[in-house]
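Regression test case RT-17, inverse folding.

Input:
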């Protein structure tokens, strides 16, 4: 388990350099007292491990920029990939407050040669486009949701794709969560495209997306709290948490409407990680709440198995 006595730890992403696993995580001081305040004080920490269990904290990766900047409020969730030239690219969410105090999110990146020292590129490189995506100006949501970039190489080697937590610009205002999409030939210049899913699948937002193959089965992993779901989607006592949907390919189509909650509703922001030693897929998440109180620590890895369409953790 990875936890810090002085700080809450929540959203995270990992990358394997071939020798060690690198954990990048959001954290904020417990001196804030109110865990909800952590979002506006988030920095990106860094830890390394050889076994996904014992972690050594190292120098932080990113902090917010001085104003005016797209990430002047906080640095939020992202992902890391390696360019063919050997450089590492970290894509991350930048948060700022607009003139009425609403949170506006956009996406930038930083580059490293060693995964330890990161240099931010001028940003943002992607912002919500009203042709396809809801913006705060629409007045339907509490922020401008455009975040959590998950980047992966095209299956046919034709550039790179990014999945984005976003909201459509049409449909029921509490049911507009979609998988946003962008494409790049070189990881530096990005072309925003229309969403890969349609609104109306039962989610106000699909947070921290990940595509992965688990025991030969292509899936889409995402996260949504019950408070961000329309009333109809909560029928039968459905609870929010980590969700998993069947996928035909990394780019879909995804069965978001048929998604199932992963075992433990106390967990949030699940991530699949391939264990280099065993060849097995492992699952990590952060503990969101216990007995009604926010926890803010990352679990040890779970083994995963399928029970029909349900993903079981052990």
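Golden output:
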């Amino acid at each position: 388990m990875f936890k810090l006595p002085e700080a809450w730890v929540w959203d995270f992403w990992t990358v394997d350099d071939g020798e060690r696993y690198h954990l990048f995580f959001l954290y904020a001081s417990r001196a804030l007292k109110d865990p909800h305040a952590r979002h506006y004080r988030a920095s990106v920490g860094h830890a390394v491990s050889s076994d996904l269990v014992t972690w050594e904290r190292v120098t932080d990766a990113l902090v917010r920029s001085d104003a005016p900047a797209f990430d002047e409020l906080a640095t939020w969730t992202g992902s890391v990939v390696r360019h063919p030239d050997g450089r590492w690219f970290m894509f991350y969410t930048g948060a700022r407050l607009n003139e009425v105090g609403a949170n506006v999110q956009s996406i930038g990146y930083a580059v490293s040669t060693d995964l330890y020292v990161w240099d931010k590129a001028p940003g943002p490189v992607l912002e919500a486009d009203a042709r396809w995506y809801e913006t705060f100006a629409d007045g339907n949501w509490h922020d401008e949701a455009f975040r959590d970039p998950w980047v992966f190489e095209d299956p046919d080697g034709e550039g790179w794709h990014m999945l984005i937590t976003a909201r459509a610009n049409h449909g029921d205002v509490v049911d507009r969560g979609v998988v946003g999409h962008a494409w790049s030939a070189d990881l530096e210049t990005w072309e925003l495209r229309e969403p890969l899913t349609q609104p109306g699948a039962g989610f106000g937002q699909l947070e921290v997306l990940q595509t992965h193959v688990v025991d030969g089965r292509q899936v889409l992993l995402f996260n949504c709290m019950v408070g961000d779901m329309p009333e109809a989607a909560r029928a039968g006592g459905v609870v929010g948490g980590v969700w998993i949907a069947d996928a035909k390919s990394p780019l879909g189509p995804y069965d978001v409407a048929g998604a199932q909650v992963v075992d433990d509703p106390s967990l949030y922001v699940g991530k699949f990680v391939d264990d280099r030693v065993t060849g097995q897929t492992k699952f990590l998440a952060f503990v969101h709440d216990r007995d009604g109180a926010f926890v803010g620590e990352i679990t040890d890895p779970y083994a995963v198995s399928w029970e029909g369409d349900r993903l079981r953790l052990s």
